[in-house]
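Take a minute with the sequence and fold tokens given here and flag any structure token that looks odd. Thanks in advance.
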Amino acid sequence: MGPRFEELFLPHLDAAYGLARFIARDAAAADDIVQESFLRALRSFGTYRGGDTRSWLLAIVRNCCFDWSRSVRGAQSAGTDAELESLPDECSDGPETSVVRRGEIDEVRAMIQRLPEPFRETLVLRELEELSYKEIAQITGVPMGTVMSRLARARNLLTRDLEQRR
């Protein structure tokens, strides 16, 4: 990798992995997807004309996720989701509070994983990657209104799921 490429795109490695992880629902696949995404980005770097590097890279990650998904579906008719890794607990609460909080985090992550792909993808890009509606529209290739409706629907589905669990 050239120094310019590294300077522009390596800061977005965590965002790329996060998106790949939520779309693929598999840690090992996310590693492979991110690696392939960076290779594609490097090969296409000559066509990069400036603009938001994170959006450009995440669009590549998204495409790699869909390519991976198609190849997996072609290789097997039914698969199982890998168990999600736990998020690090950055709180300094006591052990009881940490256990409760970990359970809540795991519950929300599981609810996000159960969302249909377009809603899950939009929610992750907005809430976890903190992208604007415009950036999400560019990455996903859908109108901004669709991004907003998918986000609203994802939030409603999560709220309903949470209410049913309580």
